[in-house]
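Quick illustration, no need to memorize.
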Amino acid sequence: MTFNRYSKLVVNQATLTELLCSAQLTEGIHNELRWISFVNILLSITTVFGNATVLLALSKVSALHPASKLLFRTLAATDFCVGVISQPLTIVSIMSQVHGQFNVCRYASTVRFLTSYVLCTMSLLTTAAINLDRLLALSLRLRYRQFVTLKRMYVIVTAFWVLTMAFSVMSLISARITSWFFNIVLLSCFIISGISYAKIFRILHHNQTQVNSLSVYQMQPNPDRTPNTEVYKKTVCTIFWVQIGLVVCYVPFIIIGLILRKNQTTPIVLAWRCAGTLLFFNSSLNPVLYCWKMSSVKTAMKETVRKICCNRSS
C-alpha cells in the first residue's frame, strides 16, 4: 500500500503530510525544531517517571473506591504511554525533518498519529468518566458501591480502548469518519463534564446549606467535614484541575491544526509543533496535580520514590 493512502491518517489531506515532512516547510527553523525536540525529551522523561510513580502509588491508596481507582489508573496509564510511545515518535519525526530523512518523518508521523489519536481519545473519555463517577458517588450515596462496581468499570474501560482503537484503524478506510468520531467524543466529554460539575457543585452547596442550618439550630459543630467527605472533595477538586489542564493544553493544538489544514506555511508549522508539545505537557502535568490536591496519593508517591531510591542505593 502506498504512503499516500497512509498519509490520510495524519490529517484529512493526503498532501499535508508530504508538506510537513519536506524541506519546503522546515527550511530556516532547524534550530527551533531541535529545541522542540529537546523539550519533548525532557517532558518524555518526566511523563514516564511521574505516571509510573502514580501507577505504583495508587495500589497503596485505600481511600479511593476500587472502581474510581481503576479510572485514575487508566488515565495515568494513557499518560505513561504518551511518554513511552507518542513523544519518542514525535522526536523521531522532528529530528528526521532536521536531518532531511523525510521518509522516516512520514512513517513516524503516521504511527504517531495512530497512537496519539488512541491515547488522546482515551484521556478525554476517562476524564469524562471520572467526572460522571464523582457525580454518581454524590447522588447515589449508599447505593453507589452497589451500582458502580469494579467489574462494570472494567467493562467500560475495555469498551473505551476497543472503540478508540477501532476508529483509529478505520482511518485506513475513511479519515473523515475518524475525524467525526473524535469531534463527537470531544464535544460529548466536555458536555458531560460540564453538566457533572454543575450538578456536583449544586448538590454540595445544597448539602452544605442544610448542614449549616442544622448546626446552627442544634448549636453543634459542623459535622460535614468527615474523612469520606474530605476525600470526595479532594478527588473532585483534583479532576477539576485535570479538566482545566486538559482544555488549556488541547485547545491551542486543535485551533492551530484547523489553521494548518488551510494555511501550510513555515510559521504555522512551527506553531503546530509547539502546540503539540503543549499537548504532551498535559501528561506530565497530571501527576503534579495528583500530588497537589490528593494527600493520600502524594504520601503514597513519596513512599514509592523513597523505596525506589533505597533499593538503588543498596
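The radius of gyration is 22 Å.
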